[in-house]
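Researcher: I'd like a candidate sequence for this fold, 432 residues long. If you have to choose between options at a position, lean toward the conservative one.
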């Protein structure tokens, strides 16, 4: 029993939490719905832009994506540059009037381009039928400018091109055939709203479930206390009437009465039994809480790694988050719960370390191209990139530090649990 607990106040606090989290959940739904409308609008805008096309002008079209831009190709060179992933390749494309532009293509050239490549490099090659290619205009990156200058000078065997006259020959933009025009479509806003709505919704739903559980547990605790009070009243009444007998069979007025009694003789219920029943942990809700808590700790781990600090210290956050989440949803943090939290932490520390170095690699390669394609490239070539950049040593050090601090945290918490259990047994012995 806990006579000092104000159940009405606790119920009111839990109810306020339920209402507040429900409001946030509705707001999250509104944000997600807004993201859907932004996405549909962006799709419609992109569809309109992709129905239009016009001739490509490398001197005026920089950054314009309101329609497809076309170029009539008569000759095409081999690639003179490619991106760091070897996914996108850069070529010179000559039109029927011998004007040249830079073209960006995805993947290797297909067989259909062979006649156009031969026309550039072979003196006796026949002139092929002009081929129309289309894409969007994009500014020429600075490193591509340098490669283009070097390659054009090699192609014509003359040092005629330099940074000063580059735009006179090749313009200010290239034709990117790997992308489609999107017009005024704003897919980025839709993605941001979708992520914000999902994050808000997940957090609000988690808090809502916790508050509902709290509200129910408070009601059950109040009901148990009322039942115990009724049992105490019945026991006192029987004691006063001379009908009460302790667990050892002695009456209240007999010598040595109740020498081995616990709480009383009512249906063999003892204080220790009631305590265990009231504080028995629930494993499956506890595992869910530990997973959510460890994920929050993992987010701290990644954030610490992004700012350049020693990520291993965040092992404390992962272990602490898992323990707090388990205790929150299971009702009690015992040794069994700590074992579960430790297993989850071991897995989560490794995954968090992987995510941290994945983010570090992505940030390094975003200097050349910030896109989801870069993220997929890093994920698909993670082990090779880690080896090339010699990151495995630091990765292992962070992992070991995270595990050591997690185990230390677990040991401290288990020691505290053991101390509490000893105190509870001592209190029970004194009461008996």
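Model: Candidate sequence:
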């Amino acid at each position: 029993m806990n006579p000092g607990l104000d159940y009405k106040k606790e119920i009111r606090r839990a109810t306020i939490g339920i209402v507040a989290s429900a409001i946030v959940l509705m707001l999250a739904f509104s944000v997600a719905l807004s993201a859907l409308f932004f996405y549909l609008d962006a799709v419609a805008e992109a569809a309109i832009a992709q129905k239009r096309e016009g001739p490509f002008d490398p001197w005026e079209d920089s950054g314009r994506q309101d329609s497809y831009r076309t170029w009539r190709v008569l000759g095409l060179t081999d690639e003179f540059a490619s991106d760091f992933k070897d996914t996108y390749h850069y070529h010179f494309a000559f039109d029927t009037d011998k004007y040249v532009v830079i073209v960006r293509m995805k993947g290797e050239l297909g067989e259909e381009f062979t006649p156009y490549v031969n026309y550039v490099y072979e003196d006796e090659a026949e002139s092929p039928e002009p081929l129309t290619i289309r894409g969007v205009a994009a500014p020429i990156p600075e490193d591509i400018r340098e490669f283009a200058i070097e390659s054009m000078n090699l192609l014509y065997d003359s040092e005629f091109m330099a940074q000063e006259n580059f735009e006179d020959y090749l313009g200010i933009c290239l034709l990117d055939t790997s992308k489609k025009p999107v017009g005024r479509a704003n897919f980025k806003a839709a993605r941001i709203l979708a992520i914000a709505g999902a994050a808000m919704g997940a957090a609000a739903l988690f808090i809502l479930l916790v508050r509902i559980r709290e509200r129910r547990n408070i009601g059950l605790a109040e009901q148990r206390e009322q039942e115990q009070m009724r049992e105490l009243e019945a026991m006192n009444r029987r004691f006063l009437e001379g009908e009460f007998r302790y667990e050892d069979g002695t009456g209240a007025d007999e010598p040595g009465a109740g020498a081995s009694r616990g709480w009383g003789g009512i249906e063999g219920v003892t204080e220790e039994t009631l305590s265990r029943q009231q504080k028995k942990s629930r494993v499956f809700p506890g595992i869910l809480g530990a997973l959510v808590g460890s994920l929050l700790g993992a987010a701290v781990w990644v954030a610490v790694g992004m700012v350049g600090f020693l990520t291993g210290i965040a092992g404390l956050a992962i272990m602490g988050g898992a323990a707090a989440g388990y205790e929150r949803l299971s009702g009690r943090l015992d040794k069994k719960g700590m074992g579960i939290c430790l297993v989850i932490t071991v897995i989560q520390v490794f995954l968090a370390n992987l995510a941290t170095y994945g983010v570090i690699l992505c940030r390094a390669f975003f200097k050349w191209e910030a896109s989801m394609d870069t993220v997929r490239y890093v994920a698909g070539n993670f082990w090779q990139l880690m080896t090339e950049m010699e990151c495995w040593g630091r990765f292992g050090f962070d992992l070991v530090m995270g595990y050591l601090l997690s185990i230390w945290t677990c040991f401290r918490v288990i020691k505290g649990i053991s101390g509490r259990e000893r105190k509870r047994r001592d209190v029970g012995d004194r009461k008996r």
